[in-house]
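PROTEIN DESIGN WORKSHEET
SECTION A - STRUCTURE
LENGTH: 371
TOKENS:
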């Protein structure tokens, strides 16, 4: 439409009116629009272009290279005037970064189309129309999708292969020797991998529903001492298996908390599981104490600890520390991300205190939603 309007022959007396119509049309567009002449000087722009380029003054008459600084996806400089000047047919590019003076940047969609600039006169010039769009959010979603597919496919492959191998071993042992102990060991390992898959699928399901806003908060009475006791019963076998002590402490006065029982339990379970996974010796302690407006839970371990740098990212989606001790265990990097999502749903606050080789303490304040 823009191209046809720019090329349309208009009687001299109506050129001004046609120009105003064109300007009105361009200014109504959500995408940034720049029209430049053959000398790469800007002859027309709209408000959206000013917003994208973060410029408050007029663009008319300015050189294109003065207002646009670009890099490609490999961080190599892209000369905008050369890029535009060699364009002979309409082209688009979604792999550019638009750089700002404060060293920040956005992902830019850029469309370039050669056109005739003018309004019916004989001196029409060859020029170009550029469409600009901020696609930073789209690119972020694409990167998350690609990372999600990569992580999940990798994490699925390992437990499935281990489970299949152990079941095959059990079948072979039955046929050859019937050694009961070896069969039990193979089946137990296969069962462990199936449980890992189940946990991962549960995390993915919860994450999907949380990000689509499908999770509801059903407030009910939670008996805190009973909840803590149930968690101890559930996770003591896992702790004993690693030679760890699982201890609990409910400070006097803590009884009933009104919140979403399912989410409170899952948050605490995720922290306990995480502490057990990364603690090789010592203990994991679950503590509950009264706090103004709710209950403060703490999960304290004597594990490997978390570095300062990793503490800033530990709740990020798919994040896993580069610490070799972390890499020895399997995981998708979704557990703590899902935990933070659930915490937001029930207006809980999470703090982390940790030091390498001295353990970690996750503190979760859960407000009483009944108030």
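SECTION B - SEQUENCE
RESIDUE ASSIGNMENT:
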């Amino acid at each position: 439409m823009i191209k046809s309007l720019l090329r349309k022959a208009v009687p001299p007396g109506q050129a001004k009116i046609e120009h105003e119509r064109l300007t009105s049309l361009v200014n109504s567009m959500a995408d940034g629009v720049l029209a430049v002449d053959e000398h790469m000087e800007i002859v027309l722009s709209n408000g959206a272009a000013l917003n994208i380029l973060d410029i408050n003054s007029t663009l008319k008459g300015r050189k294109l290279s003065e207002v646009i600084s670009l890099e490609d996806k490999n961080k190599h400089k892209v000369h905008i005037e050369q890029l535009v000047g060699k364009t002979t047919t309409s082209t688009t590019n979604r792999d550019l970064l638009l750089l700002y003076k404060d060293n920040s940047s956005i992902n830019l969609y850029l469309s370039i189309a050669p056109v005739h600039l003018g309004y019916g006169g004989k001196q029409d010039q060859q020029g170009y129309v550029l469409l600009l769009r901020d696609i930073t959010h789209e690119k972020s979603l694409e990167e998350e999708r690609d990372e999600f597919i990569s992580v999940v496919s990798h994490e699925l492959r390992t437990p499935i292969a281990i489970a299949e191998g152990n079941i095959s071993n059990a079948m072979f042992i039955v046929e050859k020797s019937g050694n009961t102990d070896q069969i039990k060991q193979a089946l137990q390992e296969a069962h462990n991998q199936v449980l890992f898959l189940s946990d991962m699928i549960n995390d993915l399901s919860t994450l999907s529903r949380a990000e689509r806003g499908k999770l509801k908060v059903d407030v009910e009475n939670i008996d805190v001492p009973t909840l803590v006791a149930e968690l101890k019963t559930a996770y003591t076998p896992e702790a004993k298996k690693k030679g760890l002590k699982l201890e609990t402490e409910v400070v006097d006065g803590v009884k009933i908390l009104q919140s979403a029982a399912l989410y409170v339990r899952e948050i605490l379970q995720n922290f306990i599981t995480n502490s057990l996974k990364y603690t090789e010796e010592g203990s994991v302690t679950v503590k509950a104490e009264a706090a103004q407006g709710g209950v403060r839970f703490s999960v304290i371990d004597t594990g490997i600890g978390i570095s300062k740098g990793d503490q800033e990212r530990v709740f990020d989606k798919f994040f896993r520390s580069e610490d070799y001790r972390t890499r020895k265990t399997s995981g998708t990097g979704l557990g703590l991300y899902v935990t933070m999502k659930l915490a937001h749903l029930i207006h809980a606050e999470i703090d982390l205190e940790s030091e390498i080789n001295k353990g970690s303490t996750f503190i979760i304040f859960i407000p009483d939603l009944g108030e």
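SECTION C - NOTES
The CA atoms of residues 249 and 287 lie 5 Å apart.
The mean pLDDT is 81.
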